[in-house]
Write a structure and sequence with these properties.
The structure holds two protein chains of two kinds. By secondary structure, chain A is mainly alpha-helical. Chain A has a domain of about 220 residues. Helix content of chain A is about 75%, strand content about 5%. In chain A, a hairpin with a 2-residue loop joins strand 1 and strand 2. The relative contact order of chain A is 0.17. Chain B is an alpha/beta fold. Chain B has two domains: about 200 residues, Response regulator (Rossmann fold); about 170 residues, Response regulator (Rossmann fold). In chain B, strand 3, helix 4 and strand 4 form a beta-alpha-beta unit. The radius of gyration of chain B is 24 Å and the shape is globular. About 5% of the residues of chain B have low confidence. Classes of the chains: A mainly alpha, B alpha/beta. Chains A and B meet through helix 1, strand 2, helix 9 and helix 10 of A and helix 2, strand 7, helix 7 and helix 8 of B.
Chain lengths: ~325, ~425
């Protein structure tokens, strides 16, 4: 019983913290999409850039300055890209926009390898945050994961306040629905879009600062999150920040618990008194345990959502 | 008139040159360059590993050329091809190598690619007996390659999965503290085979050991290993066997350290490029590996090479199979008195080498699997007798056991088809 409780609590914490990291990763993507209608394929690359820049800064001056500076650097890079590349191809429609961000993801990946090499870099968790914060019976829960969760929640609150409680947020929301009107009032709408794109990239950069040392900072890191963040955004509802939040937590928790379940159809049938052997029809499929299919569950969810609720959990638009 | 004279002069000059060329020909032929196609990932997630091994091979070739080990006038040249870790791309690379007249191929990362290369070379050699190619495999460890798929044109210089597991389980069997074992691997041929042999051999050597769990994760896709570690912990395992490499290994070890999991890891690839850097202190005294060499092996004939390589590139020369295969190749060329792959292959069969990177080795004739000494080592703090730290981490490997070639030798079912000796 104790062991089961310990396992449940730790798994829940693992699931929530992983979900929050997913949210940090995907919030910028969904933000940019909702504001500008641009599906940024290079988003995961900005995440990687954030990790590498933070590594470099942490080598020079330490982790805490990196936490602040790296997202700004990545945000500035994103803003420059919007100003000098994305804005030019914008007039040709969505496909060129998509392609230019796709190209950018390759450029960033090669660029990172030119500077930092192809091997992983030694980006460490600062000593203060290293080690366990508390233990549940005998399982330790690391301080850094709690820190990660804290940053994600703070970020969520900050972004929400920015959009609903400040003048800047008002202008951004206005520029989204009535760009001509906002322009007539004397606001520079293209500049607003540049800031939004930069801001979205900065959020990815922040996720990189946090995720880079929690996991591994290497040239392949963009690849491993590239597909999952699109799942989060689509499941949550294109352009819905709250949707992305719900979807991240859902995916994090479902995947974590699924890993623990070693049940398959074979065990299910065995309970019912039917013994299946390797000769039974469809055995290779029936013997798959939930734990084995756990990694593909998010993608299964994606397919189901697209079939039954194409606008996503909290999405507003049908198209 | 002048023009005629000029033409005459040019003509005679040409004649002289031609005559000279003919006279020089025999000399030029004896100064032969043997090209070796290096077919491995040089981009993508395995790029760092491929690049490291390419450098290792080029370094080895440089040393062998300087010492004329293959005979007077014979030098080697490495021609790199990027196979992007894919069997299909490997075949394209092989075709390109054939078009360039290259007759030696080496590859290591991925048994899928190795299998494709073997098939292609088998067919090619059958159709072109005068242009045969030879495949030197330094790291693709699927046992099938020297059993059901064995080929006269393939030689393996790494111990295969079953040999390493044979060694590992012999070592584990002596440790009474091991009671519950968890097996975790990457979901592709290699991970599946590691699990299969681990279960088979443990059941034979230590039937009292319980396998308390088994998981396969998608290759290089898992970001968060904490859920797996929670599961391992809940299973009560004291030992973990894993064939994982790269981020799948380091993330697992890091997650285990964070969760305070008190268990030992028996691994295959803890020494591969990049892994030591990320592992650092988190794997200390917990991570063991089985390998044909590590930085602090006792009889280290390879030491000067290792030191020079590290000084020049600030990188580790750990894939000593690359060094070994070049030693076998140059000695076989010398023994055969020819660079023709068919003759060289016959010369290499059954060849013995003493004082190689680690211990004495024999290239078994029946299946072309190198019989070699293996080491089991623990990741620990460097210092004292442990002279060399790995990737400047301050940590290194300490030998737990030296396994003589017979310990990890496994039988083969190979029915080799040999060409008619020439």
């Amino acid at each position: 019983m104790e062991r089961a409780l310990e396992f449940f609590v730790i798994s829940l914490l693992n699931g929530v913290s992983y979900g929050l990291l997913l949210f940090m990763l995907s919030s910028g993507l969904t933000l940019i999409f909702s504001m500008m209608g641009v599906l940024n394929f290079a988003h995961a690359s900005f995440y990687m850039m954030g990790a590498y820049v933070a590594y470099q800064i942490s080598v020079w001056v330490g982790f805490w300055p990196a936490l602040l500076i790296a997202p700004l650097v990545v945000g500035a890079a994103g803003a420059l890209f919007e100003r000098y590349a994305l804005r030019r191809v914008h007039r040709f429609g969505h496909v060129p926009e998509l392609l230019v961000t796709f190209g950018l993801s390759y450029c960033i990946s090669e660029f990172v390898q030119l500077i930092w090499g192809r091997a992983p870099v030694d980006y460490r968790i600062p000593a203060v945050l290293d080690g366990p914060l508390f233990t549940v019976y005998s399982s330790a829960f690391p301080t850094y994961r709690v820190f990660m969760m804290g940053v994600a929640v703070l970020m969520l609150i900050a972004v929400w306040l920015l959009f609903t409680r400040t003048r800047v947020g008002l202008v951004i929301q206005g520029a989204l629905s009535h760009p001509e009107m906002v322009e007539a009032l004397g606001h520079d709408v293209p500049k607003v879009f540049m800031m939004v794109f930069g801001g979205g990239c900065a959020l990815a950069g922040l996720a990189g600062v946090i995720g880079g040392n929690a996991f591994v900072t290497e040239p392949g890191m963009a690849l491993t999150v590239g597909s999952i963040i699109f799942v989060v955004v689509v499941v949550g509802g294109m352009g819905s920040l709250a949707g992305a939040f719900v979807a991240s937590l859902l995916i994090g928790i479902v995947q974590t618990f699924a890993i623990a379940l070693d049940y398959s159809f074979v065990t299910l049938f065995a309970r019912a008194g039917v013994v299946l052997t390797p000769d039974s029809f469809g055995y290779p499929f029936l013997k798959l345990t939930i734990a084995q299919v756990a990694p593909i569950l998010p993608y299964l969810l994606l397919v189901l959502i697209l079939i039954f609720r194409p606008r996503g959990l909290l999405g507003k638009r049908e198209d | 008139m002048q023009r005629t004279l000029g033409a005459l002069a040019r003509g005679s000059a040409l004649a002289v040159t031609l005559g000279l060329t003919v006279a020089v020909m025999p000399l030029a032929a004896s100064a032969e360059v043997v090209k070796i196609a290096f077919v491995d990932p040089l981009s993508g997630i395995l790029a760092n590993v491929g690049q490291n091994q390419l450098k290792s091979l080029q370094f080895t070739v440089e040393k062998i050329n300087a010492s004329h080990a293959a005979g007077p006038g014979i030098t080697f040249e490495v021609v790199p091809f990027d196979n992007k870790a894919s069997p299909q791309e490997s075949l394209n690379a092989l075709k390109a190598a054939q078009d360039q007249g290259i007759r030696y191929v080496t590859q290591g990362n991925g048994s899928g690619a190795a299998g494709a290369i073997i098939d292609a070379i088998n067919k090619f050699n059958e159709r072109n007996p005068d242009k045969t190619m030879l495949f030197l495999n330094y790291a693709a460890v699927d046992p099938d390659l020297t059993n059901s798929k064995c080929s006269f044109w393939h030689f393996r210089f790494d111990a295969d999965t079953s040999m390493k597991m044979e060694g590992l389980t012999t070592f584990m069997a002596k440790d009474p503290k091991i009671k519950k074992v968890y097996i975790i691997g990457q979901n592709y041929a290699h991970g599946v085979q590691v699990a299969k042999y681990a279960k088979e051999l443990l059941a034979r050597k230590r039937p009292d050991i319980q396998i308390v769990g088994e998981d396969l994760t998608p290759l290089a896709q898992t970001k968060d290993f904490a859920p797996y570690v929670a599961k391992i912990k809940a299973s009560g395992a004291d030992t973990i066997i894993t064939g994982n490499w790269g981020a799948d290994l380091t993330l697992l070890i890091k997650a285990a350290k964070e969760a305070g999991l008190d268990a030992n890891f028996y691994t295959y690839y803890a020494g591969v490029t990049g892994t030591p850097t990320v592992m650092g202190a988190s794997g200390a005294e917990k991570v063991k590996m089985i390998a044909y060499w590590h930085q602090n092996v006792d009889q280290n004939a390879f030491e000067p090479t290792y030191v020079e390589f590290k000084k020049r590139y600030n990188d580790e020369f750990y894939a000593t199979a690359v060094w070994t295969e070049m030693q076998f190749l140059s000695d076989s060329i010398k023994k055969a008195g020819s660079t023709d792959p068919t003759k060289v292959a016959f010369a290499m069969e059954g060849m013995e080498e003493k004082g190689t990177a680690a211990g004495d080795m024999t290239m078994r004739k029946t299946d072309h699997q190198l019989q070699m000494t293996l080491y089991i080592a623990t990741w620990t703090k460097a210092g004292g007798k442990l002279k060399y730290d790995v990737e400047n981490t301050g940590y290194t490997f300490r030998t737990d056991a030296v396994l003589d070639p017979y310990v990890s030798s496994t039988p083969t079912s190979c029915q080799m088809k040999r060409p008619a000796a020439t």
